[in-house]
Design a protein that fits this description.
mainly alpha; Rna Polymerase Sigma Factor, Chain: A; 2 domains; about 0% strand; Sigma-70 family RNA polymerase sigma factor
């Protein structure tokens, strides 16, 4: 582990392919950071994606004489891959959220328009299983149609927490009615 990245890359380029594992070990903290930041995707898949990116970067390196330049090149390759994956993940997440929001925006949540008493009772039953703040957040979401930011401010929680409660509730409804 005491070898420099530059030396490991040189040995890898000279034919010792096992040195790549040592290069990957040296870059592991940066890879782990980027995997952690990609919260929506499978962690193992993302880790493999970054290791593959690192392999491609090492194979494409033409100049590997100075340690700093090698580290900069590899870290930039990993950062570029992270940005690419983040954009894809964000697009996928946005499309998923639009589909979930369409489910409820096409349905009026006004109490007087619930003609199906069974659905209303099921809805109350699902909401009743929630505790404390989650219950109040769901009431604001379902019956008052307030935004995540307004609900978060009112309940003294983060907007992300409100979004997570909303998403989990949508998933419960999907499981109950659409599977």
């Amino acid at each position: 582990m005491g070898d420099s990245i530059q030396k490991l890359i040189k040995e890898y380029k000279d034919g010792n392919k096992e040195k790549f594992l040592l290069i990957a070990d040296k870059m592991e903290p940066l890879i782990s950071k980027y995997v952690r930041l990609l919260y929506k995707d499978e962690k193992e898949d993302m880790h493999s994606e970054f290791v593959l990116c690192l392999l491609e970067a090492v194979n494409s390196m033409g100049y590997y004489q100075e340690e700093g330049q090698c580290i900069y090149f590899l870290s930039r390759a990993l950062k570029n891959r992270f940005l690419e994956l983040y954009k894809k993940s964000k697009l996928h997440f946005d499309r998923e959220m639009v589909m979930e929001d369409d489910f409820f925006t096409n349905m009026d949540m006004d109490q007087s328009e619930f003609e199906d008493c069974v659905f209303l009772e099921d809805l109350k039953g699902l909401m009743g299983k929630q505790e404390g703040k989650q219950y109040h957040i769901l009431c604001d979401i379902v019956f008052r149609d307030e935004s995540d930011a307004v609900i978060a401010e009112k309940n003294l929680v983060s907007r992300q927490y409100v979004h997570r409660v909303r998403k989990n509730f949508y998933n419960l409804l999907k499981e109950k009615y659409f599977k």
